[in-house]
Structure formats: C-alpha cells, structure tokens
Amino acid sequence: MQISSKLYVSEQMLKKQDKVIDKIKSGNPCLGVYIITESTNGIDVFDIYNYNLLFQRYYEVYKDLTVYGIAKDKDDAYELIKLMTEDCIKELGDVDFNKFLGMKD
C-alpha cells in the first residue's frame, strides 16, 4: 500500500499517526484502524476498510491501493471524507478529487 502525500488523519489517530503509517507501509497489521482509499468499483470516489480485513486472501487484489485517510472507526472515516470534500471545494471550487488528491484516473 502507498500513503498519499495529502494524507488526512483523524484527530483520534494523531498520537498514533507515525506508528500506524509505518505499519501500513511495511504491511503489518494494526488494530483499531480504518483506511480511506480510492474506490475499486469505478463508480464511487472512496472506499472505507477496516485495515486488518485487507490481510484476508480475498482482499489480496487491493494491496496496491493508495491510502488517503486514516481513522479510528467508520464514523470517524465519514467525518474525514466530509473534511476532504470541504477542503477540495475550498481549494478548487468543485469536488474534483482526482486533481485535489492526485488520484489515479
């Protein structure tokens, strides 16, 4: 997994931020972490995963995703997406996440 240069981290995760990022980069499990990635279905913008679920064989195809947000739980992840949307609108005047976050097209 790759970490976006424009990574959003929830307030609840700020103290653990460096440790969590190191674990994600090295591919190690980390309890109590949800990640926000680009959507894999081509319709939605983001997907939210419990990070540890991605270690199951079913999710093997998702190992090349880029992480755009780190949150403590799903509600926290939704709040991060709300913040990302607000920041995108402030900066660009629209919701072009591909441009704002440098997402793959």
Properties at a glance:
alpha+beta, 4 strands, 32% helix, globular, 23% strand, single chain
Can you describe this structure in just a few lines?
The protein is an alpha+beta fold and 105 residues long. Helices cover 32% and strands 23% of the residues. The protein has 3 helices and 4 strands.
What does this structure look like?
The protein has one domain (2-101). The longest helix has 19 residues, at 74-92. The chain has a four-stranded mixed sheet with strand order 1-4-2-3, sandwiched between helices. With 105 residues, it is α+β, with helices and mostly antiparallel strands. A hairpin with a 7-residue loop joins β2 and β3 (46-50). The radius of gyration is 13 Å and the shape is globular. It starts with a strand and ends with a helix. It contains three helices and four strands; from the N terminus they run βαβββαα.
